[in-house]
Write a structure and sequence with these properties.
By secondary structure, the protein is an all-alpha fold. The chain has helices spanning 8-17, 27-32, 52-61, 72-79, 82-89. The longest helix has 10 residues, at 8-17.
Length: 90
């Protein structure tokens, strides 16, 4: 809700101006010396590795059209060495 964005001082200022709340005791002192504002953090950035391009192209090449979601077991079989796959299946 956009009308409640901001810090404690901003929220209280909007409520006092709208006559929704009585002016608190600390309001005037806090307006004269407001708390420091910190820069807003951006969204969390994704970690990108150089080999991600190759992994995406590989995963696109093994997709099965009739399958809605890739099975994790299928991916494990495709990405494991042959001797491990034979050991799991026998």
């Amino acid at each position: 809700m956009s009308f409640m964005k901001g810090d404690l001082l901003t929220k209280t200022r909007k409520l006092v101006k709208g006559l929704a709340k009585a002016e608190p005791v600390w309001y005037k002192a806090m307006e004269q010396a407001p708390p420091p504002t910190f820069p807003r953090a951006d969204a969390i950035q994704r970690i990108a590795l150089p080999e991600d391009v190759y992994i995406k192209s590989f995963l696109r090449s093994i997709q099965i059209p009739n399958m809605k979601m890739q099975s994790s077991f299928l991916l494990l079989i495709l990405l494991q060495p042959v001797y491990l796959v034979v050991g799991c299946l026998s």
